Amino acid sequence: MEFSENVEQVPLRNIEEALGYTFHNSSLLIEAMTHSSYANEQPAGLADNERLEFLGDAVLDLVVSQYLLQHLPDSPEGELTRIRAEVVAMPSLSRLAERLDLGSGLLLGRGEERSGGREKSNLLADTLEALFGAIFIDGGYAAARAVILPLFMPLVHQAAADAGQDFKSRLQEVLQAAQRGLPVYHLTGTTGPAHERIYHIDVLIDQRLHGSGQARTKKGAEQSAAKAALETLENSS
Predict the structure, then answer these.
(1) Does 9-161 carry CATH code 3.40.50.300?
(2) Which of 24-33, 43-52, 63-72, 144-153 has the least mean pLDDT?
(3) Which of 23, 116, 151, 175 could form a disulfide with 180 if both were Cys (CB 3.0 to 4.6 A apart)?
(4) Is 57 a catalytic residue?
């Protein structure tokens, strides 16, 4: 495999070994590992990995969705959506990227390098998605599926097994993995007669509203708000 002279060959080859996939077109691998901060410091025309990330996100969703339909035939659409959202969320992606040691092969600009870009969760997650997009272009859907499934099947089965886990705990775990502040729950009001009281709860993350919920108990309303916050985080990732 031929690499450009201005990139480190060994880390990129290590990434191929970690993924279990050898690129036919090595420029796609280089593009997937190129952060915009690096591309901006090079002569005009060097592509960063943002377009591949866009494609890889869709490929990942498709592969996981197909697997869920095949292996959880009795689960309703809402449960399939919850499992998929959990396993493809940024914390899951960043943990997988760390396990694959993607940080060692990233092409970063000087400023991003100094600020610890190789350990940033969102940057690592984006790079993993870019790699999925690159593999899809290089080898097609079957090749991308063969790389993605071994990485994500354990997460899918764990998420399915954790169906009874409360949303407040899950939200706290997601935020801790992303190194963000813990959620704060506020009772915003109650409605209904005393014997059928409905509690309304907002959940704030970093002092910003991320979800609201309501239920006949405060605990139930907090669970509903936490679930809404998880969906908000997933849609913004």
Answers:
(1) no
(2) 43-52
(3) 175
(4) yes
